[in-house]
Amino acid sequence: MTFRDFLNCRFMSARRGNSYAKGNKGGGRKSEYRQIYSDQVEILSKLGAIDLEIAEIFAVSEQTINVWKKKHKEFSLALKRGKDLADARVAMRLHERAMGFEHNSEEIKVVSNGAGLGSSVVRVPVRKIYPPDTTAAIFWLKNRQKDKWGDRSEIDITSMEESIIKPMTDKQFRQLVKLLNGA
DSSP characters for 135-148? Predict the structure, then answer.
């Protein structure tokens, strides 16, 4: 299936008043899974579509998508392949941002031809350099090495000495309340 074929597919939603439509309290019609959905779902997931968006495109519920994943192995594998590829692309770009990168590009410049001779448009090749991005690096590390770079710190109170955690007597509690109320 080509991308053009994919774009030419028509997904129609149910007409108003259709008792078999999605959301029908009495139970909807059985979904009609088609083999071509495997190809389409791989393309959609490569483009970053999530299950809910895929369900909307196929005019079914997200629950139906989950049923199709269980019943049709080729559908599930195609969805996973597409999502894995999209995630890998994002991870690669994030890594490039975190490390810094450079690439060749062009800039369009208007250059004077001299006094009274007008100007001309010129394409100038340039090398663009992007320094490492600390925000991208922190994000990368927080997700890849949570134990070392995570924001959360955990305190194990079971290993603290018992003398630190003592129950308060009623008298101590009343004194604390008085102190806090300014009396």
Answer: HHHHHHHHHH-HHH
